[in-house]
Write a structure and sequence with these properties.
Number of helices: 9
Largest sheet: 6 strands, mixed
Shape: elongated
CATH superfamily of the largest domain: Endonuclease/exonuclease/phosphatase
Oligomer: single chain
CATH architecture of the largest domain: 4-Layer Sandwich
Length: 308
């Protein structure tokens, strides 16, 4: 075996370490961090595999490509064509969730984005007092509820349609507010739960985020209407901890059929991770799902149009 071939084989073996750690993300915050970089691992093992095949290291090359294929398989659902959905226009709703970035001061970009897209409802993460003052002047949205904070966990909602109710929930152990918003259209009721857990950096924050996921699961199981869970969840769908949100309550990822739609980290111009999500109960028809343009935050906004 040539030295270059040995080096590539070594890189193949080294690449198995972060992949394996990612599947153990339920047990430790460092392992959980490795779970999020699935796209990078796929590109890595395809590349290593083809290089090994060219170097005539057939068995290791095919094994590397097999690993890449296995990692790719769960992503197929995000790109599988969806059957056409027919729904009454009166029952459609356009929603956006925006992580504003509390230090972001590009107010005009955000307002241009919101007004141009004419969303019915917009959820706001990292809402501080400066952002609240700005949104209070946005006259096209008559209904609003703001919970600004001086840290990164203020939250709010603005709406063009009547809100039946807005409840403030504490589903965390860190006094982080979530909003439960209820609306009615044509005798149908929809609940929307907007939330923003702590980022899982370090054991304390990791356990807090996971506890919030567990509390969300318990709360969602008590809701009798159709529901959307939306916000910056500080996790990709590849984390074993995130998977409990979809498995335990049959919540469906609204990206299915529309792509992976990464949202972070837009400050570097390259978005590799989807941290902002919209999950829905089976009775919600997802008509469109996308991400918005850069608005000065480190997150891209998410967009979803539904029928219910």
């Amino acid at each position: 075996m040539k030295l270059s071939e040995r080096l590539i084989t070594l890189l193949f073996l080294v690449g198995l370490i972060p992949v394996g750690l990612g599947f153990l993300g339920k047990f430790h915050w460092i392992a959980d961090l490795f779970s999020h970089f699935r796209l990078i691992y796929i590109i890595y093992f395809y590349s290593i595999g083809f290089i090994l095949l060219l170097a005539r290291s057939i068995k290791t090359g095919l094994l590397s490509i097999l690993i890449a294929l296995l990692l790719t398989t769960p992503l197929i659902q995000f790109y599988s064509p969806k059957p056409p959905i027919s729904t009454s226009k009166n029952n459609t709703l356009s929603i956006s969730s925006i992580n504003l970035l509390s230090s972001n001061s590009n107010y005009s970009e955000v307002f241009e984005y919101v007004t141009k897209n004419n969303f019915d409802i917009v959820f706001l993460m990292e809402l501080n007092h400066q952002w609240q003052f700005q949104f209070e002047d946005l006259n096209s949205y008559e209904h609003a509820y703001f919970l600004p904070r001086s840290d990164n966990f203020g939250i709010g909602v603005i709406s063009k349609i009547d809100l039946d109710s807005v409840q403030v929930l504490d589903l965390s152990d860190a006094n982080l507010p979530s909003l439960l918003v209820s609306i009615s259209k044509e005798s149908e009721t929809l609940s929307m739960l907007a939330t923003h857990p702590l980022p899982p950096i370090g054991r304390r924050f990791f356990e807090s985020r996971n506890l919030q996921f567990e509390n969300i699961n318990r709360f969602v199981s008590t809701i009798e209407t159709e529901l959307i869970l939306i916000g910056d969840l500080n996790s990709t769908s590849f984390s074993p901890n995130f998977k409990r949100l979809t498995r335990e309550n049959d919540l469906i990822d609204t990206r299915i059929g529309f792509g992976i739609l990464p949202t972070w980290n837009d400050l570097f111009g390259i978005n590799l991770l989807t941290l902002d999500h919209a999950l829905a109960t089976p009775g919600v028809n997802v008509l469109r799902r996308s991400v918005g343009k850069s608005i000065g935050s480190d997150h891209l906004p998410i967009e979803v149009e539904i029928g219910f």
